[in-house]
Write a structure and sequence with these properties.
single chain; 10 strands; NAD-dependent epimerase/dehydratase domain-containing protein; alpha/beta; five-stranded parallel β-sheet; UDP-galactose 4-epimerase, domain 1; three-stranded mixed β-sheet; Rossmann fold; L-threonine 3-dehydrogenase activity; NAD(P)-bd_dom_sf
Length: 358
């Protein structure tokens, strides 16, 4: 086995402020391993890309170092508090304890606005967390990792339409225009080193993630979720982004299908550089979203008050992601468009509000 480079060595510092996370163990993991299914560990599934994905991963993930939404609690058979990707020894212990794991999903990262507000903490989670995970994987001889990159990796020099992961590999020095994007770029660099030393890294460029859950993080594309909740409550909404700035999004059902397709693909099918793929969904402007919402809530009121960070990112990021590469190599195409997304999210919020008596 080749010696892993020192650049991947963890800083071996514990977390400054531990986050409570859960570890979920699939009792049927031995059968899954024999049948060729890919059990894995999943740090960070409570944030951004992880929201709304518990059901899709429940039959595939054996150890999940992340909080699940309330609706997924029935799937929990074992819980452990205090898992944090900034703590190398915790990651090391999990992978040593669960020898059956051979795929790790790294979803642990603050969202775009959160990173802009506190870049040093974000760096600890995103970059040092990745370093901890990769070194723990190396020690445990786990080769495959799936990392969720972001449209935040694209800067002002990137194409506006049909952006690809390939473009990022062909322009490694482009400036993403944010600490968020630069930290994602650093993670891709670590993944390249991991691949050089025998690993099987795969990464997905994700758009904004939409879902029916009751809570979400502080990202740019989350304005859409905030607007849908306000509409369900029949409250006015203050829009923080330009009404005519299109942004790529994806509904959680499509996200699960796309990521599982990337995880499960045979290596000889992955023809894109560094095994990076855009996972597309839908794309819309705030104006288009509000028009669709008014089909359900005709008196929905909107005013515009631009947030400096959110409006900056909305103009910086691409309008759409390419659909070709994921369709050809992974067999993935998105299914859910704007009308269905709005209908499903509003219905979920209304059901919760009715149950709470609000």
């Amino acid at each position: 086995r080749r010696q892993c480079p020192s650049s991947l060595r963890p800083l071996r510092e514990g977390p400054q402020s531990p986050n409570s996370c859960d570890r979920h163990v699939d009792p049927d993991h031995r059968r899954r391993r024999r049948s060729g299914e890919a059990p894995g560990a999943c740090p960070g599934g409570a944030r951004g890309a992880g929201r709304g994905r518990g059901q899709g991963l429940a039959t595939r993930v054996c150890v999940q170092a992340a909080s699940l939404p309330d609706g997924m609690r029935k799937l929990v058979v074992s819980t452990e508090l205090g898992v944090d990707v900034r703590d190398f020894f915790t990651m090391q212990r999990i992978l040593k304890r669960h020898r059956f794991v051979h795929t790790v999903w790294n979803l642990a990262a603050p969202l775009s606005v959160e990173t802009a507000l506190n870049p040093s903490v974000a760096e600890q989670v995103t970059m040092n967390g990745m370093r901890n995970i990769l070194w723990a994987m190396y020690e445990a001889r786990v080769k495959r990792i799936l990392f969720t990159d972001s449209i935040g990796s694209f800067g002002e020099t990137a194409p506006r339409k049909d952006c690809t992961a390939r473009w990022l590999t062909e322009h490694p020095t482009q400036d993403p225009g944010s600490d968020y994007g630069r930290q994602k770029r650093a993670c891709r660099r670590l993944l390249r080193e991991f691949w050089t030393f025998g690993g099987d890294p795969r990464w997905a460029v994700l758009p904004g993630v939409l879902h029916t859950e009751a809570a979400w993080g502080g990202g740019t594309t989350e304005y859409a979720l905030c607007a849908l909740l306000a509409a369900a409550k029949r409250e006015p909404f203050v829009c923080p982004v330009d009404l005519d700035a299109p942004l790529p999004m994806i509904f959680s059902d499509d996200l699960v299908r796309g990521l599982l397709a990337l995880q499960d693909a045979d290596e000889n099918r992955l023809r894109e550089p560094e095994r990076g793929y855009a996972i597309p969904g839908l794309s819309f402007t705030a104006s288009e979203l509000f028009a669709e919402i008014r089909k359900h809530v005709p008196d929905f009121e909107v005013t515009v008050e631009l947030d400096p960070n959110m409006s900056k990112f909305a103009k910086l990021w691409p309008d759409t992601l390419s659909t070709r590469e994921s369709a050809e190599d992974l067999g993935y195409t998105p299914h859910i468009g704007l009308p269905e997304m709005v209908s499903r999210v509003l219905a979920a919020h209304r059901e919760r509000l009715a149950a709470s008596g609000a």
